[in-house]
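--- STAGE predict ---
source: upstream dedup step, 1 unique chain passed
mode: sequence only
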Amino acid sequence: MVTKQQRQRQLAREKFERQQERRGTAHARRRRRNQIVAAVAAVVVVAGGGAWLAVATSDDDKDDKKTNAADTPPSTQPSAPQTPPPAAKPKTCAAPAPGDPTKEQFPAEPAMSIDTAGAYTMTLKTTCGEVKVALDAAKAPHTVNSFAFLAGKKFFDHTKCHRLTTGGLAVLQCGDPTGTGTGGPGYKFVDENLGTAGADGTAAYPAGTVAMANSGPGTNGSQFFLVTGDSKLPPNYTPFGKVTGGMDVLQKIAAAGTEDGSSDGAPHENVVLDSVTVAK
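--- STAGE serialize ---
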C-alpha cells in the first residue's frame, strides 16, 4: 500500500521530470532557432552599401516564451507606465465639396482659342482656401489655352493635390484626376517659356511660381505645381503663372507637412480643388 508521503514524493518527482522535459524541449528549440539565425546571418544581402538581415518570429519562439513564463513567479512590482502615442496632428482644411473628378479624356490638344495678348486669371477654390493665379498667355500660350479649355470642362473640379515637397524643393503638385501622379487629360503639348540654367545646371523658381509638371520634354498634360518657397530646378518645367492671392493658403499647407512626416509625399492636409476657373 502506498503511503501518503510516498504518493507526495512520487507526485513531486513527476512534476520535476515534467519541468525538466519542458526545459529540455525549450532548450532544443532555442538551439534550433539559433542555428537557423546563424545560417541566415551567413547569407547577408548587400545592396547600395547597406546590409539587411530579417529575422521572423516563429511559433517555436512563442512556445518558448510560454514555457519560460510558466516557470516564472508573478511579480509583485507594478508594471512600468506605458507612454501614450503622440496625438494625431489635426487637419484644419474644410471637407471637400460633393462630387468626383470627371476623368474625361480628350484625343488631342485643344485648338487655340485664347487671346495671347489678354490678361487671364485662374482661380483655385480649394478646401484650404482660395488661390488666385495671373496667367502669362503671351509667354505660355499653349499652356494657358489648355488650362482655359480644361477648366471650362470642369476637368480639375474635385481633384486632389497629391504631392507636397518640403525639403530643398518646396512645391504643391495638383491637376491629376486620378490622384496618383500618373493621370492626365489624354493629350500632351509642347514646353514653353523655359529659362536658362546657371552654372549649377538649375534655374530659379521663386515662391508663387506656377509651372507644369512633366515626365520629359513635350509631355505636358494637366498636372502642375505651385511653388510654396523659393526653389531651384532644371529649366525643364514650363512656368505659366504667378500667385497673386492666397500665398498664405499655400504656406499653411506646406507648414502642415506630409501625411507621413517625410519631405516628399501626400500632404497632411486634404487639399482638394473644389473648382478651378479661368477668366479673362
